[in-house]
């Protein structure tokens, strides 16, 4: 058993989990209404006997089935050999020893090769669940919209009933937003950006810094002595540096005037 259907619905409801329950129910109803309408329309527009996925499955395996060697065993059982292995096909039991036909209920390349030899339609080897007719029946139900609440016919005992809030003891800490993994599902572990190992992050990493594959950081030098390892606040030569506030601020025009006076 898998939880693919539940996971697909959870991904659609991820953005509305914080809404009230009535809003969530209305969103689910509208979502199912659109899904059923779209799939019902696609089923009506499908011209083939099989669904699009099943028909593509047959087309992808036609060329490989033509390269198989067939050796009859009896009227319904055949030994079929392809490029990699061999299998026993039983048309009466609708089975193949490769187990692909048995599990998917769509013919494998061995069964398709035998059907071509016997002149039997390949579509007849597929399960009825892959036909367009069954697809139309799956979406015949119509999801109707909810009428106006003012038009609802509510019984008096239901209208006068007082519904109290649910008594639940709230646990300490922040409520969880992420889903709980299923049994046997492997959770993706976080990898450290420093050492590359899993199970911790860069902030809680206790391993020495790893510079493999990372560009080395350029050390910042002191703005006073231009040496590395300290800054201008901790520089031992800070007192020897000239004070920029005491330097003369002479413009280029003043310098030119002084030069002219010296020449005169």
TrEMBL record:
**PROSITE patterns with a match to the protein in the record:** ZF_CCHC (PS50158), ZF_SWIM (PS50966)
Basic and acidic residues composition bias: which ranges?
225-242
User: What ranges does the record give for the region Disordered, renumbered to this chain?
Assistant: 169-264
What are the alphabetically sorted keywords of the record?
A: Metal-binding, Zinc, Zinc-finger
Return the Basic residues bias intervals.
169-179
Any single GO molecular-function term of the entry would be: nucleic acid binding
Annotated SMART domains:
ZnF_C2HC (SM00343), ZnF_PMZ (SM00575)
Which InterPro entries does UniProt cross-reference here? Znf_CCHC, Znf_CCHC_sf, Znf_PMZ, Znf_SWIM
Regions of biased composition (Acidic residues) lie at 253-264
Residue ranges annotated for the CCHC-type domain, each copy included:
192-207
Q: Where is the SWIM-type domain?
A: 78-119
Would you say which domain of life the source belongs to?
Answer: Eukaryota
Under the heading PANTHER family, the entry gives: MUDR FAMILY TRANSPOSASE, POLYPROTEIN, PUTATIVE-RELATED
What protein does this entry describe? SWIM-type domain-containing protein
Organism listed in the record: Acer saccharum (Sugar maple)
């Amino acid at each position: 058993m898998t939880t693919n259907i539940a996971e697909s619905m959870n991904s659609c409801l991820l953005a509305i989990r914080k809404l009230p329950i009535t809003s969530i129910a209305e969103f689910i109803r509208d979502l199912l209404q659109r899904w059923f309408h779209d799939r019902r329309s696609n089923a009506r527009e499908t011209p083939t006997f099989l669904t699009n996925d099943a028909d593509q499955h047959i087309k992808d395996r036609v060329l490989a089935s033509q390269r198989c060697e067939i050796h009859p065993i009896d009227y319904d059982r055949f030994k079929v050999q392809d490029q990699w292995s061999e299998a026993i096909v039983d048309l009466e039991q609708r089975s193949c020893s490769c187990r692909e036909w048995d599990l998917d209920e769509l013919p494998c390349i061995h069964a398709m090769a035998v059907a071509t030899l016997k002149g039997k339609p390949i579509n007849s080897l597929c399960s009825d669940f892959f036909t367009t007719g069954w697809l139309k029946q799956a979406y015949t139900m119509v999801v109707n919209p909810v009428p106006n609440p003012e038009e609802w016919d509510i019984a008096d005992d239901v209208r006068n009933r007082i519904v109290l809030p649910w008594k639940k003891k709230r646990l300490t800490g922040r409520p969880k937003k992420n889903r709980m993994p299923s049994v046997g599902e492997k959770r993706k572990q976080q990898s450290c950006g420093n050492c590359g190992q899993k199970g911790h992050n860069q902030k809680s990493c206790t391993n020495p810094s790893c510079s493999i594959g990372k560009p080395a950081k350029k050390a910042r030098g002191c703005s006073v002595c231009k040496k590395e390892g300290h800054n201008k606040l901790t520089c031992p030569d800070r007192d020897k540096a000239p004070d920029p506030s005491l330097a003369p601020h002479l413009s280029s025009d003043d310098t030119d005037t002084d030069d002219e006076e010296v020449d005169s």
